[in-house]
Amino acid sequence: MSSPSISEALLRLMHAYKSRMRRALQDEQLGVPITHIRALKGICRHPDCTAQSVAQWMQRDKAQITRVLNDLLGEGLIEKRDNPADRRSQLLLPTPKGEALMGQLQNIERQTAAAMTKNLDREEVAQFVRLAAAMAKNLGGDPESPQR
Questions:
Q1: Would residue 1 count as lying in a domain?
Q2: Lesser CB count within 10 Å: N end or C end of the chain?
Q3: Does residue 24 belong to any structural domain of this protein?
Q4: How many domains does the chain have?
């Protein structure tokens, strides 16, 4: 039997990672969709975040992002403030509740990463991170994007 192709290996890894994350989110009863988590993560990481910037790095249309942001606002996870650099837009910031949720999410991500890398040494993990970043860059992806 031949070894799996890069595509097969990546698909298996992504499926396993997403499944583990979804189970952990359900176990913690967080009830937040993945798209909302990605948006909140980016908002927490970028202090000058706007709805337009979220739509750009998530590569989603503005209407879909508006719905996600309205959900996050309604849940009290983010707030809007006037943008002093551009009066036509508003800055998005996490609320204390949003920051607390991010803390929970980071714990889940750390636990999932620990499980995923439990039989690997630091150099193997560092090599994987370098290779994945290079591959993403080769495909036109931004390895520093907040969604990653």
A1: no
A2: N
A3: yes
A4: 1
